[in-house]
Structures are given as structure tokens and as C-alpha cells.
Specification:
This protein is mostly helical and 156 residues long. It has one domain. 85% of the residues lie in helices and 0% in strands. It is built from 6 helices and no strands. Helix 1 runs antiparallel to helix 2, helix 1 packs parallel to helix 5 and helix 3 packs across helix 4. The protein is elongated, with a radius of gyration of 20 Å. It starts with a helix and ends with a helix.
Length: 156
Amino acid sequence: MNPTAEDRVRNLLIALSEEALELATSALMLAHPIDGPAFGLRFIPELSQAARRLEQLTVAALRQSGVSWDVLAERYGVSRQSMHRRLSEDVDRQLEQAQLFPDMNQEHAERLLETASALASFLQESLVDDWEAGPNAADARRRQPQSWWREREADG
């Protein structure tokens, strides 16, 4: 059964929320003054890819909602042709992928929201103290070769 236009937009919005929450969760991990730098090298490439997917999903949702390539290009300050050339294939792919497992995407987005909320609460409680402790932790790691990643690689 083919999804209705309304279902297609809903599924895109779920996928968009999922990707945005994935990006937010990773960004919150980077905000931790002690562990953030070690996470950074691991997550920055993933964050870049997630930002591209987020852009593609946003454009897909807007296109499915009736926004023209001309309007999108105007918002970007580029020509319609360059906007279309750069994003159309990826937008079509994201549209199709969003339709595959919307229930699973929704469950994952809900778990990511819980994780992001827990990370934000943790940071809210410890951030100021960790800013003060961060330089000492960095200095201790500097004195032990490979200490920045040893414990992280064991976890990952």
C-alpha cells in the first residue's frame, strides 16, 4: 500500500526529528568540558554527515509540503538550478528512506529525546564544576600518552 501525501510528510517529519535529535545528542556530548574534546575527533565527521542529512530531510519535507525549488533557492541565495542540482537526488533518496520504517524511526527519536534530556540535565548539574576541573584533567591526560582515547576505545 502506498502512503498518502499526508503520511509521506509525517514520515519525513519523523525522520527529520530523529536526525535532529541525533545531532543534538552528539553535540551535547561534545559540550562536556572533560570528555568533549576526546569525543570530538570521533563525532565531528558524524556530525557533518548528520547536518547534511538534516538539510536533505528539511528540504524533502518542505518540497513535499509544496515549497518550490525557486523559494528554497531564494532562501539560500543561490539559483534554482544550483539548488536543484546539489540536493534533488539526495532529497529524493531521503524521501524514500523516510517511508521505509516510520514506526522504528519514531521509537528511535523518542529514545534520542530521552537521551538528550538526560545529557542536558547532567550538563546542567556539572558544567560549571567541570569547566574548572577540565584543565587539570587535560593536563593529566597530556602526561599519559594515549590516555585521551584508551578508555573511549574500550567503550566503543
